[in-house]
Write a structure and sequence with these properties.
CATH superfamily: HUPs
Number of helices: 6
Order of helices and strands: EHEHEHEHEHH
Number of domains: 1
CATH class: Alpha Beta
CATH topology: Rossmann fold
Bound molecules: 4'-phosphopantetheine
Structural class: alpha/beta
Helix content: 25-40%
Strand order of the largest sheet: 3-2-1-4-5
Shape: globular
Largest sheet: 5 strands, parallel
Distance between the termini: 64 Å
Radius of gyration: 16 Å
CATH architecture: 3-Layer(aba) Sandwich
Strand content: 15-25%
Length: 165
């Protein structure tokens, strides 16, 4: 019998910061893959609120309940990073139809670059279908409460960053 090849997936994103929507996708990806690598994209053209180290740290603190999940960061092309890690899949979360156009473009470009890496779309729980990191940042900066959208330690860091005078 052939030995079972472990299935590795990359879950890439900005994660600025991680939300319960991302965590929901990570949980679903764990059902499908032996190993899930959450990969924080380092894009010199973007200026995220949190540094690469802060984003990685917040993710690590948010995923302690899952096994087979690692956190890392990457520069440059996602498919190159995925190949380096021996991954066969890229995970992306879909919330609503508005996500679809961008996601399809990205998936098709990535497929053109390497057709052996399969983009896999997972649907978030409907309770997170309207959630993204930007809306959480706006909510916190305007004095709102985001405890139902992000883990407590992330909520605390957001308050420290966005409400300090
Ligand atoms: O959380 P985001 O911002 O929607 O994530 C987008 C991300 C980081 C997955 C995407 O921009 C990406 O893959 N960046 C790496 C550069 C790359 O490979 N681009 C794809 C060629 S179209």
């Amino acid at each position: 019998m052939k030995p079972h090849k472990i299935r590795i997936a990359i879950y890439p994103g900005s994660f600025d910061p991680i939300t319960y929507g991302h965590i929901d996708i990570i949980k679903r990806a764990c059902f499908l893959f032996d190993k899930v690598i959450i990969a924080v994209a380092v894009n010199p053209q973007k200026s995220p609120l949190f540094s690469q180290e802060e984003r990685v740290d917040m993710i690590e603190k948010s995923i302690t309940e899952f096994s087979g999940v690692q956190v890392d960061s990457f520069h440059g092309l996602l498919v190159e990073y995925a190949k380096e890690k021996d991954a066969t899949a890229i995970i992306r979360g879909l919330r609503a139809v508005t996500d679809f156009e961008n996601e399809m473009q990205m998936a098709l470009v990535n497929r053109k670059l390497d057709e052996n890496i399969v983009t896999t779309f997972l649907m978030t729980h409907d309770k997170y279908s309207y959630l993204n990191s930007s809306i959480v940042k706006e909510l916190i900066s305007l004095g709102g409460d985001a405890k139902c959208f992000v883990p407590l330690h992330v909520n605390k860091r957001l308050i420290e960053k966005l409400r300090k005078q």
